[in-house]
Amino acid sequence: MRAIVIGTGFGARVVAPTYESLGIACTVVSPHDDAAVRAACAERVDLVSVHSPPFLHHAHVMAALDHGHAVLCDKPFGRDAPEARAMRDRARALGVLHFLNFEFRQQPARVRLKALLDEGRIGMLRHVGWSVIGSGLRGQKHRWLFEAEQAGGWLGAYGSHAIDTLRFLTGSEVAQCSAVARTEITTRPDKQGVMRRSTAEDAFSSWMRMENGCTVAFDTAYSAPITLPQRLTLLGSDGVLELVDDRRLTLRMPDRPDESFDFTPPDGDPHIGSLVPWLERVAAALRDGRQIAPDFDDGVAVAETMDAMRASFSANAGAVVP
Predict the structure, then answer these.
(1) Fewer CB atoms < 10 Å away: N or C end of the chain?
(2) DSSP string of 113-124, one letter each residue
(3) CATH 3.30.360.10 fits 106-266+306-315, yes or no
(4) Whole-angstrom Cα distance, residue 138 to residue 295?
(5) Does the structure show a pLDDT above 80 at 319?
């Protein structure tokens, strides 16, 4: 099999080598070279894998679909829900395979967490609390990620993964949500050292209610002074599941010892442990001509939730305490 990878950052650094390790030959194309993208999409390939910045997703996905190719697109799947729906609808109309790169569904600890939930080990899931506080963006140079006008922001960069994980774990869609955003580092130097204003959020807090009644509180900041352990807590009617740093999963039940599961990640990029099993599934789906999830429908569902959250960012809604 052969794939075109559009993207010289994460696509070239992590995705293309992963495809190669699975026996899929890759050609990496710069997302900023329109002629090269058009030429690559005109070739006979088995998959076009889009890892360009989100403001280019629509153009690149549509270019691949115009040639009838199967497409894998990275999150957040375009600038907004209208772009996401347009890409999804075009793929459906053509009848081609389409995949969304929500690879963290395949993270081993989250796979085990999902299995424990589905087995009913904590009874009925009632609430999820999730905290992701880190310093990963703190020293980064100004680029599209920090520009709201370019579909940047931490909501799209990580919130998209979080929303999909919540949908995956709960088996339910987001029914209601609200969020508040903040930009903790308001100016950053670009590559030339010129100070630029950051217009996109690097932190946000949100609440959600899933269609099945489960409530969610999600808090994240990624320009913090230090990195804290990520903590995902799921409260059920009969017990609690707690996942720390995607490494240690603990089942806590009343009147019995805790049950713990350890997951040591592989060396290298933190995406690898999730990306390898996910792309193995994609390769098998391509060979079999079989649609699998997560797909463009999942991308649309997440985009619609993010649009609702962005609307609440802008409205700054909330009851004022007298």
Answers:
(1) C
(2) HHHHHHTTTTSS
(3) yes
(4) 32
(5) no
